[in-house]
Amino acid sequence: MGSFAFLRRFIHALAAGAFALALPAALPSSAAMARGAPDSFADLAGQLLPTVVNIATTETLKPNADASAALPDLPPDSQLQQLFKGLLDQGKNVPRHVISLGSGFVIDPSGLIVTNDHVIDQAEQITVTLNDGTSLPAKVVGRDEKTDIALLRVKPVKPLPSAHFGDSNRPRVGDWVVAIGNPFGLGSTVTAGIVSARNRDIAAGPYDDFIQTDAPINRGNSGGPLFDMDGNVVGINSVIYSPSGGSVGIGFAIPSNMAREVVDQIEKYGATRRGWIGVRIQAVTDDLAESMGLSANSGALVAAVTPSGPAAKAGLQSGDVIVGFDGKPVPDSRSLPRMVADTAIGKTTSIEYMRAGQKQSAHIMVARLEDQDDAAPAKPGPAAAPKSGSKLSELGFSLGALDAAARAKFHVGADVQGVVVTDIDPASQASDKNFRPGDVIEQVQNQAVRTPDDVARKVDADARAGRKVELMLVNRDGDSTYVAMRLDGTG
């Protein structure tokens, strides 16, 4: 045992030395120092456990009026069919009460509790169980589906131990974190791990910016806190990636900086109040950047502008690439929705954008988002047309006039103008770019088109001029999206 203890101390000493060697020779006194693994998490767990609660919700499922739909395929009037039918009929008119379990944490001694919106969604009754076993009924103060955050209130007989939001920008990839929650209904459970990655987009909502961690998180941990080593909440555990349903070391937490803003607004207004500028955006891919003459694939491409919205009043147009907002750079299309949402309603701020290769700026007044699909990335895009002997035929789609018959067949609104895609070659670039019949090509290289010949002439002319990538504005189901089609045969 003595040799093992010596070896352990020796490994710890090596680890400490490695951290020291990885640091610059001189650091400002305010810089955060790297920490090794603690000998124990017991002191931290003892401090934080009383702030975490278990949440149970009750929902009544309506009876299935058509239980016969669940019958297996059996010979008619057979004994087995009658047996199954009898078993299903017994329960088809009986409502079922379903209990779901989750986690949460106290943020105010008076009884304010944060959890995930999906933990309390559809709940008819919510019960919060404190760490000491006390159970209290809870009411919903407010909820936000877009960020999956909800705020509850209980009425305790005495002030509750509460947790504190920390700065979610501080934990670095590799830093230790601790998760506490109610996995599988087992009760307060402490797990530890590291921050595995930051700024994860998992397509859960328009403001995705998750912290990824390998601290074991399972079903029932949803809504529970992710703590840093100072005992501050840096995230709300919300999602796991798991083919098996259990932890495989990939969990995601909502950053506390985002959660704090949402919780403050819910507490103050009962709902969130987000900024809105009236644009639909999409990512700037390499092909799109090349087709627009941009030096880099950064920024957010404006696919559509809401008429009379703030962006329209500021002079923005579809095809502009927003590269700056409120004095900060916009690195990609994921960043802009969060930046706009966090801006104070009514604030007039600056916006920078690229148009025809030139950087321009304007002032824009931020309005309030009223459940519009604002600044959320536009749906993945579609593409273009053919005619025998035309460069267009190589792209893999057939085009038709957008007449009354085409509008009726493809359900295209009267306000949409352009050329309709009538057919797609499944082995073509158009198919690879997700084009489908009914898509409407509105513009080719920022030039409006109204007939199939307009599209063919523009594509052929640009191909002869040596253009390698053609930019098309495509409307699908009322949403416009830019699509880049390669003319050089490399697509």
Characterise the protein shown here.
The chain is α+β, with helices and mostly antiparallel strands and 491 residues long. The protein has 4 domains: 48-66 and 78-153, Thrombin, subunit H; 176-269, Trypsin-like serine proteases (Thrombin, subunit H), CATH 2.40.10.10; 276-368, PDZ domain (Pdz3 Domain), CATH 2.30.42; 391-486, Pdz3 Domain, CATH 2.30.42.10. Helices cover 20% and strands 32% of the residues. The protein is built from 11 helices and 26 strands. The chain has helices at 2-22, 42-48, 79-91, 117-120, 256-269, 286-291, 310-313, 335-341, 404-410, 429-432, 452-464, and strands at residues 52-61, 96-108, 112-115, 125-129, 135-144, 149-153, 176-181, 189-200, 210-213, 225-227, 233-240, 251-255, 275-276, 279-283, 300-305, 321-325, 328-329, 348-355, 358-365, 367-368, 397-401, 419-424, 440-444, 447-448, 469-476, 479-486. It has a 6-stranded antiparallel beta barrel. A 6-stranded antiparallel β-barrel has the order 7-8-9-12-11-10. Strands 14, 15, 16, 17, 18 and 19 form a 6-stranded antiparallel β-sheet that branches. A hairpin with a 7-residue loop joins strand 7 (176-181) and strand 8. The N and C termini lie far apart (65 Å). Mean pLDDT is 83; it is low at 1-32 and 372-388.
